[in-house]
Amino acid sequence: MVMENKTTGHALDKIKIHQKTGLAYFPEQIRKEGYHHEVEFLPNAITLTLIKPGSSMEDVKRSLQNVLRDIDLRIKYPPEVKNDSPA
User: Fold this and answer.
1) If you count Cβ atoms within 10 Å of the first and of the last residue's Cβ in the chain, which end, N or C, has fewer?
2) What is the pLDDT of residues 47-71, one digit of tens each?
3) How is the chain split into domains, by residue range?
4) Beta pairing class for 24-25 and 16-17
5) Which residues have C-beta within 8 Å of that of residue 36, sequence separation ≥ 6?
6) Which residues pair with 40 in a beta bridge?
7) Does residue 87 register a pLDDT over 60?
8) Which residue from 47, 10, 8, 53 is spatially nearest to 30, judged by alpha carbons?
């Protein structure tokens, strides 16, 4: 599943977290993929990995390897900045 951010065109989006309550909104497309009820996560100092219910640690490892390849491609080929102003 790849979600494209409507503003940037990247396959990247944001989870909105309410400052006071700590409640987070997950888009419907994410919930339909199985991320609902209780979802385990692996945090570190910079990132947070959400683990789809029923996934094995081998599945998580393969997924993170794919994420690393994707990050390498994003570094190598940064998205073009869209300039909507007339030239």
Assistant:
1) C
2) 999 999 999 999 999 999 999 999 9
3) 22-76
4) antiparallel
5) 26
6) 51
7) no
8) 53
Which amino acid, residue 72?
D
pLDDT digits (tens, 9 = 90+) for 21-38: 999 998 888 889 999 889
Strand partners, 50: 41
3-state secondary structure 26-81: CCHHHHHCCCCCCCEEEECCCCEEEECCCCCHHHHHHHHHHHHHHHHHHHHCCCCC
Exposure string for 55-78, b = 16+ CB within 10 A, e = fewer: eeeeebeeeeeeeeeeeeeeeeee
In sequence order, which residues have a C-beta less than 8 Å from that of residue 15 and are 6 or more positions away? 24, 25, 26
Task: Tokens 């494209």: give the residue.
Answer: 4
Do 42 and 49 touch, CB atoms closer than 8 A? yes
